[in-house]
Amino acid sequence: DRNSEEDYFPAQVFREGARWLERNQDAERFFLVLDSFDPHEPWDPPLYYRKIYDPDDDAIDFLSSLYGRADQLSGRVLKRLRANYAGEVTLVDRWLGFFLEEMRNLNLMENTLIAVISDHGHCIGEHNLVGKQGHPMSREIADLVLMIHHPAGEGSGTTCESLIYNYDLPPTLLARLGIEPEKPMDGKDIWSLALGKEKGIYDHLTCGWGPFVMVRDRRYWYNAYLWGESPLLYDLEADPKLEKNIAQEYPLICERMKDLAIADAGGKVPEFLRKLKGEPGCTPLLVE
């Protein structure tokens, strides 16, 4: 039951995080991870946050994403979905701000490394889709947010569009703190990109969801079944919003991108992924 904004999950998480800081502010070292979970569904922010983006008081409301084709929904429904999502983001933003303000009050901003990273995005009408899917996997879903605050101001105010993985964050943070990992880690230190000392570390990225794979380099965005069926190919220079599939026109590029994915998967398509074709659900779990 929620009687006020402070009863919502992001408020509880960031308030508890602030209390933890108060208890540990004098520690020589500390490490704190907070997961707000939101703005995941259900999108049910306080009404006043939703009304920022959709002030109408009609009875229509949807707290979860209506997965499927966007053209099967009315413009009114899409507007409310977007407003609920935006309201949820605003709720998270407000309580992240509360947490950062507490860090300032405790004089921790000057000696603490802070990183904020997102999970995945969501289509709410883009590409005529509502949902988060592995095919088509669009930039709205796969492009993540990463913000890093360095206490000494290194890289302050800069932005970077280089290709990186989310698992590059741990080795990057450890390197800034002068800590050697006890065991080998996936990922690379990306700080040189943030400072503009390098333009790129990876020549391509590969990610997957269920039996689907997405491979992108600086020019092309490829998305298909891991073994190559139902290919989508986009030219990022000519078509940054991924609106024109050119897979049939450039089969050799599709083949090259598929080969990169299989190589990154260890040289062959895992058999359990082949069995997932046509199965409902999201990410597969392999239980041995």
UniProtKB/TrEMBL annotation:
Sulfatase N-terminal domain span: 7-179
SUPFAM superfamilies named among the record's database cross-references: Alkaline phosphatase-like
Pfam families: Sulfatase (PF00884)
UniProt-listed PANTHER family: SULFATASE, SULFATASE N-TERMINAL DOMAIN-CONTAINING PROTEIN
Protein name: Sulfatase N-terminal domain-containing protein
